[in-house]
Design a protein that fits this description.
With about 325 residues, this protein is α/β, with parallel strands linked by helices. It has two domains: about 110 residues, Enolase-like, domain 1; about 190 residues, TIM Barrel, CATH 3.20.20.120. The chain has twelve helices and eleven strands. The strands form two sheets. Strands 5-6-7-8-9-10-11 form a seven-stranded parallel β-sheet. It starts with a strand and ends with a helix. It binds magnesium ion.
């Protein structure tokens, strides 16, 4: 099958900066790609690198893809490319081949349908704000807190305050982005291990400390995130929760199949994609919610600006970019 490959770059500012223990995100850069087949089928994909060095690598490699290309040659060529490029091309091919058929609506716009990412600078006042605006609704909420940004004493004091303030209807996810050592991780695991509010501790130890992560997972649910990206084999081996980011994996069709086959303990997470990548996030998240261990996805919905880039029609985004 002959294909025409086209790409367009995008850039947008998050509504507020997002900090984790390793990086601060404010401006997001990436590309939307479009593949058209000779029988007039179209597939879109998004190249959504998170770090500057990955962005540079993707820029160079995207320029190596010719505009007119055979599907076999394209699939061969991208095997050595950055996972974000592989993800975009494989997503677009899956759309052309009918391996994924998006719905018109997915209903993740309401705030309690996704996890709310707290601003790490002032978690307590933000939590109070959320409680105030949501108090008479009584629905359950999930909040996500990025830790290992301040000193541990201060964060443990914040934890105590948070735990004293959340009732049964607020679930908590705590993400250290790989920055704790075993000692601190174990302290937090001991504090939280019998707590009913905690969904999981996310990537508490560095990506390489798989033994330490396995030990912790015996005490409290541990969700792997960055470790899965560095060691994709863990996707088939890790027995606990997995944070899965379709735009960062070589082929999101694998994730699609896992969810279609009702694999448990998967949670879908955003890498600040536009409406193009969001179609996958929504589709996979809705499958996740129909699976054996439903959990709201982490889509950082409160961080996106108002822009055509987040429309739910891929062709309109492409045309306006
Ligand atoms: Mg994470």
């Amino acid at each position: 099958m002959k294909l025409i490959f086209k790409k367009k770059s995008y850039s947008f500012k998050l509504s507020t900066k997002v900090e984790n223990s390793k990086t601060t995100y404010l401006t997001k850069l990436g590309w939307i790609i479009k593949l058209s087949s000779n029988d007039k089928k179209i597939g879109f994909g998004e190249v959504s690198p998170l770090q500057e060095q990955d962005f540079k690598k993707c820029a160079k490699q995207l320029n190596m893809i010719p505009e007119n290309v055979e599907v076999f040659n394209l699939s061969e060529q991208i095997n050595i490319f950055h996972p974000c490029i592989q993800s975009a091309i494989n997503s677009a091919l899956a759309e052309i081949n009918g391996k994924i058929i998006f719905k018109e609506n997915y209903y993740f716009d309401e705030i309690d349908k996704t996890a709310i990412l707290l601003n790490s600078e002032n978690v307590i006042s933000e939590l109070n704000e959320i409680k105030k605006t949501r108090s008479n609704i009584g629905k359950s909420l999930t909040i996500k807190w990025k830790v290992a940004l301040k000193n541990n004493n201060e964060e443990e004091a914040n934890l105590e305050e948070i735990l004293s303030q959340i009732g049964n209807n607020i679930k908590l996810r705590i993400d250290a982005n790989g920055s704790w050592g075993r000692k601190i991780a174990n302290r937090w695991a001991d504090i939280l291990k019998d707590n009913k509010n905690i969904d999981w501790l996310e990537q508490p130890l560095c990506v390489d400390d798989i033994e330490g992560l396995k030990e912790l997972n015996k005490k409290i649910p541990i969700a792997l995130d960055e470790s899965l990206l560095k060691f994709p084999n863990l996707i088939d081996e890790w027995k606990g929760w997995q944070i899965r980011r379709p735009s960062q994996e070589n082929n999101p069709v694998k994730l699609l199949r896992e969810l279609e086959n009702k694999k448990a303990l998967i949670s879908i997470s955003s890498s600040f994609e536009t409406g193009i990548g969001k179609r996958w996030l929504y589709h996979l998240s809705s499958l996740q919610l129909q699976g054996p261990t439903p959990k709201v996805p982490g889509l950082a919905m409160n961080k996106f600006p108002n822009s055509f880039l987040f429309l739910n029609e891929a062709q309109k985004i492409w045309d306006q970019l």
